Write the structure tokens for this entry.
Amino acid sequence: MNILGINAYHGNASAALVSDGRLIAAVEEERFNRVKYAAGFPAQAVRYCLAEAGITLAEVDHIAIPRNPWARLGTKLLYALRMPRFARERAKVLARFAGIPEALAAALDVDPQRIRGRFHRVEHHQAHLASTFFVSPFEQAAVLSADGLGDFASTMWATGEGSRLRVHDAIAFPHSLGMYYSAVTQYLGFWKYGDEYKVMGLAAYGEPAYLEEFRRILQSRGAKGFRLGLEYFSHHRTGPDMTWREADKTPELGRIFSQYMEQRLGPSRAAGEPVEQRHRDAAATMQARLEEVLFELLNALHARTRQKAVCLAGGVAFNCVANGKIFDRTPFEQVYVQPAAGDAGLAVGAAYFVYHQVLGRPRSFVMDHAYWGPGYSPEQMRQALERSRIDGDGFQIDELPEAELARAAAKEVADGKIVGWFQGRAEWGPRALGNRSIVADPRRPEMKQILNERIKHRETFRPFAPSILEEAAGEYFERSDPSPFMTLAYAVRPEKRGVIPAPTHVDGTGRLQTVGRSANPRYWRLIREFANLTGVPVVLNTSFNDNEPIVCRPEEALDCFLRTKMDTLVLGNLLVHKPAAFEPPDGGPGPR
Ligand SMILES: [Fe+2]
């Protein structure tokens, strides 16, 4: 039985294919169309998923869409009456969703009559809950979804048991942890979709100096969760829906903090203005208050469910700083967050919701790695290399067997080179986890600055992350619970902070990836070889890109390699050295 999950007309458009309960493929549209967080219809992602499964649309039995226009209809109507603009937006959204069968048929260039599969509407947060629990290793768990807004709710919690999810409660618009985080992120001068990540990094540089004020901005309601102090916000007045720019389909969220927030906290920072201590302190306070409320919610969820394990999803589940503290601040003993915790994950969630909750099929699958995207053959990589301007331009190219390749690449890293590492199938979710990664030496304190100057051009306050051999995690970090998807940050042991300064954040934590030998044998081997050379079983891992979606095809990896000041590229078994005198076309991209 084949189920196609499609997250369309929403940020992070994506598709996933589940066959007899096993995940076959899952990928975001942005990896193909090269537009970060792309919305629209994920035509290329759908085509890829079917191709990976070797099936046609006629062989898809169920099509799962993570949006249910009937959910919370009463509340929606109430807002529609009050806000004509909102009513118009809803009508547009409904029309777009009604056209999904046609869009799907057009994407595959077939007659809509050829669609045999049954369509299912899955409420946004139920799809989030399903996206984490049904692929988790747990037979039973508490499950929490929290994000900005989806189907007019922001938060939902449940108990998962076998192939069932039992929803306990939800929090509806306009109260939302995601909106809270986004509003303060905007106030701090970061306006791009996805900038919340930056502010989470910035928080480590400040002190939670404004807690009293932030307790009014985000208010606790005990076991009922939380509410927003609405006077600090404007989204409840202006309309909640995300728009996306017609030009490139990038999602955009209009201003959602009110003038009152500026009256209370001082003027907002304009994008590009210097970041001052009060901004750092506001970021730190926002994070501290999020944690207070999140842990209250999780403690209440534990009291209600008495489960040992908790599964998280929704954009808030990307808050690795908070996630890493769950063990200490709640009674939960195990935490699972799947790699695409945000809205891309809805494609997987909707598909599994249909398989288990709707069709009642038993569980048989655990997502224990993230490699569900496109992969390329050695022949395709070689051809990409031949077509690039690398051929005959003074580059040294060696084809090496795996053991030698890992050793040679590890040597490059240990020598301070910046190494592009392109292997196997692309990662599902926003983190590079050793298949589309840039790897560097974690022991060099200057490496963060070098990476920023030569390749990444990121804000200096944003941390880089460590990948560590799973078996060595406890030696370097205060916790050793697996974190295969970089969704947890742990404190680096004080005596090790000087050993791996480059991926250790200013507060002494690291958003680690624990690398298991069976999950990614080749990446594990690279780190093992690096440990053999240096005694340190850690590499710095950052995503293979430069202000663009993570590279997907070998051509994009080569392009990024040539465009930036990366030293070495490992493309499958090919090791490519850049000539020392090589200059990127225009002297390299400048800071943005
Ligand atoms: Fe969501």
Q: What stands out?
A: The first strand starts at residue 2 and ends at 7. Residues 587-592 have pLDDT under 50 and may be disordered. Residues 124, 128, 147, 150, 314, 343 surround fe (ii) ion (CB under 6 Å). The longest helix spans residues 277-305.
